[in-house]
Amino acid sequence: RTEDHVRPREVDHDLARAIAEAPVLMDGSGFRTRARVYELSAELLRETDFSRALQKVLEVAVALLKADKGNVLLFEEERKELRLANSIGFPQEFRERYATLPSDSSTACGRAFQGRRRVVVEDIHRDPGFQKLGLENHSFGFSAVQSTPLRGRNGRLFGILSTHYDRPRRPSNEDLGTLDLFMHEAEQVFALLETR
Fold first, then answer.
1. Cα–Cα distance, 79 to 101 (Å, whole number)
2. Where are the alpha helices (DSSP H) in 65-127?
3. Distance between CA atoms of residues 103 and 186, nearest Å
4. Chain centroid to CA 90: how far?
5. Average pLDDT score, the chain
6. Strand, coil or helix: 66
7. Does residue 33 or residue 121 have the better pLDDT?
8. Which residue from 139, 136, 149, 140 is spatially nearest to 110, judged by alpha carbons?
9. How far is the C-alpha of 137 from the C-alpha of 122, rounded, in Å?
10. How far apart are the first and last CA of the chain?
């Protein structure tokens, strides 16, 4: 598999535009947002390559959560580490320095992997886990992050999807809920691609 790293302007513009319109479609019941998520999932179902599917899921997550950057880390079982597979918006220096992380690291992605649940860090400069890492994170221009586990067949955890923000912030519960709907559908696609 080739690694996929893109700048924000290189993402699928039709997909990004469709995602950007999703909050406008929200009504009291959430029906229209769910319908849009299923439409995006159907588009994802047409994908036959696992790496490209991961990239599309990352693009959707960055757009849905109004993030500035994002990445996907895949679990390497033999080495017990998370390997950078896809990214949006990060400089080459970041991608090289954090090409792999121990799966038990104190980063948001490490904690999400260990806990098998989403981790949201509203301000990395005030977070005890990130403080253990030092302040070198300043040079990469993100101050907040959310990390969500990626699951495939039989609920197997195979990686972490993270979105990053230039300033301290927390994604809204509504946006996280929409991401959860999309991730549920995406996991069905990952399960299918794993069997091919």
1. 10
2. 92-97, 108-115
3. 23
4. 13
5. 82
6. coil
7. 121
8. 149
9. 14
10. 14
b/e per residue, 26-60, with b = 16+ CB within 10 A? Answer: eeeeeeebbebbeebbeebeebeebbbbbbbbbbb
Give the phi and the psi of residue 82 in degrees, each rounded to 5. -105, 125
**What does the chain come to in residues?**
196
SS3 of 163, please?
strand
Residue 188: pLDDT over 70: yes
10 Å Cβ neighbour count for 24? 9
User: And the tokens for 181?
Assistant: 């709907």
DSSP 107: S
pLDDT tens, residue by residue, 76-104: 999 999 999 999 999 998 899 889 999 99
Question: Angle, nearest 10°, between helix axes 173-194 and 50-64?
Answer: 180
The one-letter code for the residue type at 150 is L
Backbone angles phi, psi at 47, to 5 degrees: -75, 135
* Contact of 148 with 118, CB cutoff 8 Å: yes
- The structure's pTM equals 0.80
% of residues, the chain, pLDDT over 90: 48
Other Cβ atoms closer than 10 A to 65: 22
* Three-class DSSP category at 114: helix
Q: What is the pLDDT of residues 110-161, one digit of tens each?
A: 999 999 999 999 999 899 988 887 755 555 679 999 999 999 888 889 999 9
Structure tokens, 17: 């535009």
